[in-house]
Amino acid sequence: MSHIKRALLAATMAVSAAATAVIAPAGAATLDAAAHAAIQAALEDEHKAEAFYAAVMEKFGEVRPFSNIIRAEQKHASALNRLLQTYGQEQTVDNPYLGSAEVAAAVPATLAEACRMGVDAEIANRELYDTKLIPAAQDYAEIKSVFSALRDASENRHLPAFERCGSGQGQGHGMGMGMGAGMGMGHGNNAGDL
């Protein structure tokens, strides 16, 4: 094959690949546009949750479960940024929603109401992963695994903590003394790491 034909073939293949995938640097795995968009949507969701929980604590103090779950949301964002790094994509390390007046205005008048909003947010988060994000990453085992872990954290840890809080249980100040499984040695309920 001539040098010109090889160059044309290579250019054609590059254009074709660009139309169907986000191109990663040499040595990195490729990521299709749908999976990339799913990671970005998950990261935005985690950032919005972190910002809302920070605004709740700004208004009511460092109260559980918000003080525990905000750290989990930060860990979730880090896990999603690691996925972007794995695929050679730009990471969003800084949360653009932190300190937003719009987010602060959404904080309700009472902590119990904020907890009920947390319940609604965690249910919506679970649904987002189940109906949109996990299906978009169907061809990527590592992304599906991270998405499933984040969805499970919402359903099995965050949601019960907010449900307890919304019913008046599990509220308190400080970091708790939990040793896992959500039980806090007499100092309130711990939302766990995720």
Task: Tell me what the structure shows.
The protein is mainly alpha-helical and 194 residues long. It has helices at residues 3-20, 33-60, 66-86, 101-105, 111-136, 141-166; strands at 21-22, 31-32, 63-64, 172-173. Helices cover 64% and strands 4% of the residues.
Could you report the average pLDDT, rounded to the nearest whole number?
78
Q: Sketch the major β-sheet.
A: 2 strands, antiparallel
Using only CA atoms, what is the Rg? Answer: 20 Å
| Helix proportion range | 55-70%
Structural class by sheet pairing and helices: mainly alpha
Measured distance between first and last alpha carbons = 55 Å
Topology order in helix (H) and strand (E) letters: HEEHEHHHHE
Oligomer: single chain
According to DSSP, the number of beta strands is: 4
Morphology: globular
Q: What proportion strand?
A: under 5%
Strand order of the largest sheet: 1-2
Low-confidence stretches: 1-27, 170-194
Please work out how many helical segments DSSP would assign: 6
Write the layout of secondary structure elements.
Layout: H1 3-20, E1 21-22, E2 31-32, H2 33-60, E3 63-64, H3 66-86, H4 101-105, H5 111-136, H6 141-166, E4 172-173
Helix pairs in contact: 2-3, 2-5, 3-6, 5-6
Outline of the structure:
The chain has 194 residues and is mainly α.
Write a concise keyword list for the protein shown above.
single chain; 194 residues; mainly alpha; two-stranded antiparallel sheet; two-stranded antiparallel ribbon; 6 helices; 4% strand; globular; disordered N terminus
